[in-house]
């Protein structure tokens, strides 16, 4: 078994990481998953959360809000709609992400008769975004709507 694998994290704005990793904790839509070298191939969607990369050079953490992860035995690639190193996240970033999630929830409520499952998905997105603020010690900063 190899000790490390290639890890890449890319958002539309920039490439955030390209490094060797011994483990990557991914906030998957179906739950958190830890990816290590020789992992079985899988593709998963992301939910809002903290993505943690452990490697020979230490641990790095990133806030992600959605996207995809492709895992292979020798690599893991994450394509995130939005990704920010945890130490760069500001109250403004978090408030903007929560406001976007809240808007999607309100829009889903209006279309509830047409697609009822959208309300549940949007409510989960909003709850995940608010929990993310607590996870990175910023709190959601938003009053319940």
Structure description:
- This protein has two domains: 5-86, ATP Synthase, domain 1; 89-135.
- 27% of the residues lie in helices and 40% in strands.
- The protein has two helices and ten strands, in the order E-E-E-E-E-E-E-E-E-E-H-H.
- It has a five-stranded mixed beta sheet, with no helix packed on it. Strands 4-3-6-7-10 form a five-stranded antiparallel beta sheet.
- Strand 3 and strand 4 (31-35) form a beta hairpin.
- The radius of gyration is 16 Å and the shape is globular.
- The N and C termini lie far apart (50 Å).
- Residues 141-145 have low confidence and may be disordered.
- F-type ATPases have 2 components, CF(1) - the catalytic core - and CF(0) - the membrane proton channel. CF(1) has five subunits: alpha(3), beta(3), gamma(1), delta(1), epsilon(1). CF(0) has three main subunits: a, b and c.
- Produces ATP from ADP in the presence of a proton gradient across the membrane.
- Keywords: ATP synthesis, Cell membrane, CF(1), Hydrogen ion transport, Ion transport, Membrane, Transport.
